[in-house]
């Protein structure tokens, strides 16, 4: 929740500071591929598929609450870092065709109104028209896509990179935003799970990754997690068992 809200506040505030009298910055991808404005729909549809798949995996996992808190912690860390980058760096929008709402001021009432308006769209343009500009450095779409696909099968890798290619074709981000989004999301996800494994193996204190400023949270989040568990998903299969005068489905099936 904090990471999500911090991004909305950062975008609502930084919109007034985006340079609008400069051309898009030079970009290697832009110089070789044409702009296709409708390509963002492909990226967002894929992102929704990955999100739904990731949520299904989390909520049907035999250790669902452990997996959920691990995932949401990684998301919160990634998006908090993104909010910081958006606040610090303001660069021109990647396309002359990008609409940015007229600038006004940075009053508390204006920023709060923008946050409320944007909050429920989760950054998906298909759920709201794009009006505010400035949230470029570290792509939010990339953070979500890579955090969602990392625990899933290899076919999702193809979908993820197709989505990133579509984002660039639509000129919604510079290539550096995509690279940073990939780096931040994958490094946080991998570092957390490396530290968690180290904690359960009793080598946490000697692991150089424990020098990270946020590593003190690992013992708190992992205190009740089993040291080793398989990734089983729990689904319910219909099986008839006599209970009084009714037939009830009670058989539970697990698989990897």
From TrEMBL:
The record ties this protein, via PANTHER family, to: SPHINGOMYELIN SYNTHASE-RELATED 2, SPHINGOMYELIN SYNTHETASE
Localization, UniProt: Membrane
Q: Where are the transmembrane segments?
A: 38-59, 71-89, 145-170
Q: Which species is this record about?
A: Caenorhabditis latens
Q: Which GO terms describe its biological process?
A: ceramide biosynthetic process; sphingomyelin biosynthetic process
Q: Which UniProt keywords apply?
A: Lipid metabolism, Membrane, Sphingolipid metabolism, Transferase, Transmembrane, Transmembrane helix
Subcellular location, principal: membrane
Q: Does the keyword Kinase apply?
A: no
Family statement: Belongs to the sphingomyelin synthase family.
State the organism's lineage: Eukaryota, Metazoa, Ecdysozoa, Nematoda, Chromadorea
Q: How does it sit in the membrane?
A: Multi-pass membrane protein
- This protein is called Sphingomyelin synthase-like domain-containing protein
Do you know which Pfam families this protein is assigned to?
PAP2_C
Question: Which is a Gene Ontology cellular component entry for this protein?
Answer: Golgi membrane
Single GO molecular function: sphingomyelin synthase activity
Domain Sphingomyelin synthase-like stretches: 133-194
Q: Does the keyword Transferase apply?
A: yes
Instruction: Provide the leader sequence positions.
Output: none
Q: Which InterPro entries match?
A: Sphingomyelin_synth-like, Sphingomyelin_synth-like_dom
């Amino acid at each position: 929740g904090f990471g999500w809200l911090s991004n909305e506040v950062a975008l609502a505030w930084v919109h007034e500071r985006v340079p609008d009298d400069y051309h898009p910055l030079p970009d290697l991808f832009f110089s070789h591929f044409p702009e296709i404005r409708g390509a963002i729909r492909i990226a967002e549809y894929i992102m929704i598929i990955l999100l739904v798949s990731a949520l299904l995996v989390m909520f049907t996992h035999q250790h669902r609450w452990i997996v959920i808190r691990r995932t949401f912690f990684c998301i919160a860390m990634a998006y908090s870092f993104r909010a910081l980058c958006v606040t610090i760096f303001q660069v021109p929008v990647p396309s002359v065709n990008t609409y940015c709402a007229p600038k006004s001021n940075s009053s508390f009432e204006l920023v709060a109104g923008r946050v409320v308006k944007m909050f429920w769209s989760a950054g998906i343009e298909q759920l709201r028209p794009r009006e505010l500009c400035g949230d470029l450095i570290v792509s939010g779409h990339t953070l979500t896509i890579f955090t969602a696909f990392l625990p899933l099968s290899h076919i999702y890798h193809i979908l993820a990179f197709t989505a990133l290619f579509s984002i660039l074709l639509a000129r919604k981000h510079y290539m550096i935003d995509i690279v940073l989004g990939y780096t931040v999301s994958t490094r946080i996800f991998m570092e957390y799970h490396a530290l968690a494994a180290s904690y359960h193996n009793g080598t946490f204190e000697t692991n150089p990754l424990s020098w990270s400023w946020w590593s003190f949270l690992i013992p708190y989040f992992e205190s009740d997690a089993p040291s080793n568990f398989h990734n089983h998903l729990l689904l319910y299969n219909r099986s008839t068992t006599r209970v009084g005068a009714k037939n009830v489905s009670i058989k539970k099936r697990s698989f990897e």
